[in-house]
Model the fold of this input.
Amino acid sequence: MSGGSGEEAQSLAFGGQALIEGVMMRSGSHTVMCVRQPDSNLTVQIMEYTSYTRRYPLLFLPFLRGVVAFAEMTYLGMKSIFYSANVSLGEEEEFTWKEYVLVGVMVLAMSAGFMVIPFMLANYFGLTSWLLNAAEALIRLSLFLGYMGLISTWGEFRRVLMYHGAEHKTINAHEAGKPLTVESVRGLRRLNPRCGTSFLFIILVVSVALFSLLTAPDFYTRIAYRVFLIPVIGSVSYELLKLSDKYRGSAVMGVLMAPGLLFQRLTTREPDDSMIKVAIRTVEEIKRLGAANAAPPPHSNDRALASFDFN
Done:
């Protein structure tokens, strides 16, 4: 198997997500999940999916598209994880809409907790002004690093991080126009600037800046800021992520994105060859579906919507 030219890579931009014993990739028109079964055979699930930002141009407007992208990523991510869990365990259970809603509520609760808990801890020490914001940011960063460090020691999750590395390496090979072979992909780095880990770092920076500007005299109003402004923070962070991808060759942007790439060393691990093969198979399926020859996107600079990395 071989990768295409640099021009082909630009016409077929995509991103994905590490799964349980597998990888999911998404282009502008399809989602492909490739998962290893208990007998080591691979199963491939293909789903046609066109983003709502393509169906309804109004939703592609800056800042609106970030909210839509996050909702779609959450839905597709949950669907893919559930599918991979069933396949890797040899089960055929279908998740109901109630279970999707339950997980969605959990995601929202965790997002709110990620914003509120650091503020409450910083406020407990009686800090004010910029000291409060600095302590809040430091606590939020510490919670994230502690969480990633803890779960990375879990054997099963460590394998997910290895598939995450395989996904990044294969996307990097595709975008560089390199052959999609195990030997070629193995030698590439496992970091990617569009990774969701980098997105979380941007969210951290944006939240610090925003909460520094929005001050309120009472405790509960400040908590409300941190809950109800989550979509705003996410939208602004998404636009900055798109900007960083557009100017990824810039030295200035490289410096700004370096911390996010550093965080990815926690969320990715070096994969083995069998994992790289799964990621390559997923990319080849996307290409087989003709995504590279699909009609051009109806909006300019639509690249990041399809190519954002879910992890």
Observations:
- DSSP finds 13 helices and four strands in the chain.
- The chain has one domain: 6-293.
- Residues 1-12, 291-307 have pLDDT under 50 and may be disordered.
